[in-house]
Amino acid sequence: MKIKHAILPGRDPTSRWDVEFECNTITRIQPAAAPADCSRNPSPSPLLLPPLCHPHIHLDKAYLLTCNHHHHPHHHPSSEADKHPDYSDLTPQDGSFAEALRFTSLAKQRYTDEDLYLRGAQLLATSLSQGVTACRAFVETDHVTRQSCLHAAIRLKECFRGKMRLQICAFAQDPLFSTEHGTENMRVLQHALRDFGEHVEVLGTTPYVENSTEAALRNIEWAIETALAYSLHLDFHLDYNLDGSREAMVWDVLRLLREKGWTERAKPGKTVVLGHCTRLTLFSDGEMARLAGEIKDSSLPVHFVGLPTSDLFMMGRPAGAAGESTSADRPRGTLQVVDMIKKHGINACLCVNNVGNAFTPWGTGDPLALASLGVGLYQAGTDEDANLLFECVSSRARRAMGLGPASALEAGLPSQEPRPDQDQEDTTELQEGRRGELLLIKNKEYVACPGHLGVKIPARQQVCVRDVVWEPPEVNLRQILRCG
Length: 484
Ligand SMILES: [Zn+2]
Hints:
Blueprint: E1 2-6, E2 17-22, E3 25-31, E4 47-49, E5 52-58, H1 97-108, H2 113-130, E6 132-140, H3 148-159, E7 165-172, H4 182-195, E8 200-205, H5 213-229, E9 233-238, H6 250-259, H7 262-265, E10 272-276, H8 285-297, E11 302-306, H9 308-314, H10 337-342, E12 348-350, H11 367-377, H12 383-392, H13 395-400, E13 438-441, H14 465-470, E14 478-481
Parallel strand pairs: 5-6, 6-7, 7-8, 8-9, 9-10, 10-11, 11-12
Antiparallel strand pairs: 1-2, 2-3, 4-13, 13-14
Helix pairs in contact: 2-3, 5-6, 11-12
Bound molecules: zinc ion.
């Protein structure tokens, strides 16, 4: 495959390159020959970039707020179980976190196999069209869902093989050490790990849903031990609050990882990811520096993932009754991902978390839209910031998942994936020898404009990373390049 007259990030945006791409490897980059006829305006050049990644996305609760009741001519539900459930009564009312938890657990009771498969496939196909080639899919296993979400995820992984590197996270959204269902939830999760071990690569839990600090600590301790025992990556939903009177649990996670000897006992390349962590926005610079120091000193492969579309919707609501605007004081809280990386050298990335449900009713799930939101959210307006935000939804996101740049085609061959956290460079630049898929951004020749103007208006060209971060290109201008 040869991509002619391409624009490459990090190089002079007026230069054009011919890029040879074989076996998902850039084998040659050469300056492109000047167009033969200079008088003729050459067709617009495409921009080549690394592909996008979802390091934290909930597969089974996507699109609960949209209708799947259309009558597809080729789809005849054969049984009651194949019919698509109605979730329309679960539209957010007060929009609170408690309501989202309640509505989503009600929705869970209605999942059917075909419904889980359809919504999951819609999410993955949409992600592919947006330029995503790898994702960590959170799949709930508990007393309500049993193994149904896991079954759907395994089916989807097979269906998208070679296109999407689907990394399945067996996930306890519900308590394991408290409430009347804790014991049963634990039993179901343990079964999942035992019976579907070959398909599960990550263990995820939610310590904050336990009803005491003691139970939350047991949750963390058990998850660390179990991830080590099954050689899994570990992923916590953690510190999802803005309550300065409560100590952040990130300190306990780091302490327990050290006490359990994660760095010595974990298989090379296994990472620990901490999601949400909105409580950390109340940290002083000193506390953040201490956090960075603890992670560095203990050589823990800890990555933070900011989930701003969910956090913005959930965090910092008025102090009065939910939905009632009794106060103008709405302290938004979402991890300061850019500062964490730039000022403190902490590994961090970004993801959309949820698409189309009570936790995050808005957004398209597009990682580039998320990077774009980051410009305003983190007040990050330099070229360097744009590059960093792009890395947060591409190379840094992959590294959090324990993946190098290598492609979806190599899924299931972890030995071919470079070890993460080993001087691996986060870069949007593309060099000869780079392995992995590419994302091609096409440029339009003219502005598409409804109605007849009598003149054609030349389109603005996207020639560098900041252009696509500041103004994400339409999905139909994006194309994933892979060989085979
Ligand atoms: Zn999540």
